[in-house]
Amino acid sequence: MTSSSTDWIQSLGMLLDKSQIATGNEDLVHYGKDWTKVFPPRASAVVFPKTIDEVQSIVKFARKNAVAIVPSGGRTGLSGGAVACKGEMVVSMEKMNQVLAFDSVERTVRCQAGVITQTIQELAKEKGLFYPVDFASCGSSQIGGNISTNAGGIKVIRYGMTRDWVLGLKVVTGSGEVLDLNKGLIKNATGYDFRHLFIGAEGTLGLVVEATLGLTRPPENPLVLVLGVSEFESLMNVLSAFQSKFDLEAFEFFSDKALAKVLAKGTLQAPFESASKYFALLEVAAIRPDTPDELMSTFEYCVEQGWVEDGVMSQSIQQAAQLWRLREEISETIAPFTPYKNDISVSVSKVPAFLDEVERLVNESYPGFEIIWFGHIGDGNLHLNILKPERLDKADFFKKCHGVTEMVSDLVRRYDGSISAEHGVGLLKKNFLQYTRSETEIELMRQIKKSFDPDNIMNPGKVFDV
User: Fold this and answer.
1) Which of 11, 28, 250, 318 has an alpha carbon 20 to 30 Å from 415's alpha carbon atom?
2) 336: alpha, beta or left, given left = phi > 0 and alpha = psi -120 to 50?
3) Which of 350, 140, 398, 80 is nearest to 233 (CA)?
4) How many CA atoms, within 13 angstroms, populate the side-chain half-sphere of residue 436?
5) How far apart are CA 193 and CA 188, in angstroms?
6) Which residues pair with 311 in a beta bridge?
7) Mean pLDDT, 10 residues at a time, over the chain (466 residues)?
8) What is the rounded CA–CA span in Å between residue 90 and residue 69?
């Protein structure tokens, strides 16, 4: 709990240089929020540590003065996990942005928590390797934030989540202890692996300060296809047909309404002339000379079965990038419409029935609300976006959408899914945590938090209430 007095702000000057402390309103707003627009930021101060020692001093200071800490990375989250709305001290990692070591034998990179995701991707490319965790916000998201939310993205079907690429982790716990977890080892069978507790914990156990990440060989000659289908069920048939013959690098989907928003910008062209209700985007590595022919053969088979109406396959790296933009620019183009987002997942086989029920419920309960669907259908992750009607007040819109979340969460529970596939729980979804986790699990989480953060200063009120 944050101290009611702000006298502690004056004492920060004893810990850090003046340039590492911000209390101006513009900074408090900028660093006290993430991409959610539901919770107004009300931070008391922002600090910018440069070293692990400084982070440790900050945490011990916060514990002594009963000051709550909110960790801040790239603030690209969509669940309010990085929002400081109760006078907390924001700890920004943006000055801890150094790549510390690269090991060509181990194929690993060690970096500070504030390093931008794209920096790691580019470094890997320079070394002839590949960091596969990728998403639209890779140019601004930070490694520490990715780890804290176990970020997924567009390559999960082939490469898994952030968790699968974290070989070592340094953290500062809520009691101010520095833990060096797993130390980059591939094999380490020595009891509990606390590294995995901090991955996805959203800063509630401590602050991620350093990470050792695994790298792999890059995909060879990526080929991208965009296919149009009339029925959502057909997408699952297409997925099955291509998965039976290829190791898919990605399998994304988006609706015609999502595509229309992207095309309205005027910077991209439709992938083909005919109209479809849904679109699939596939990426396959052309590891053999006959891969393009096999892809076309599978495409033609899907057309013959009536699953696919039209399609296009990239003929160059440049065209592949253009086709990816049709999917990657959806979030940016719908942002001006004040979308209410739900990041949910169910088993892949249950996706069509689940989506059908969600769409019916929203349309029946909220006629006039425009629904934009897209997501990582290859791993069962759906992004439901409801756009605010132009004449509806934002506060009223979010209030109405809370009812949407209740309905969707109830469906998620019935389908044994997750209320948060890749953006965490934060503030936005903590009241729905019990739809995915049992009361026993949640109570165990509370006990774990108390062990690492005995005074509840680390991102309190996020994920669950203590």
Assistant:
1) 250
2) alpha
3) 350
4) 21
5) 9
6) 227
7) 70 94 96 88 97 98 97 91 96 98 98 98 97 91 96 92 97 98 95 97 98 95 95 95 95 96 95 95 92 96 97 95 95 90 92 91 85 92 92 89 87 95 91 95 98 98 95
8) 6
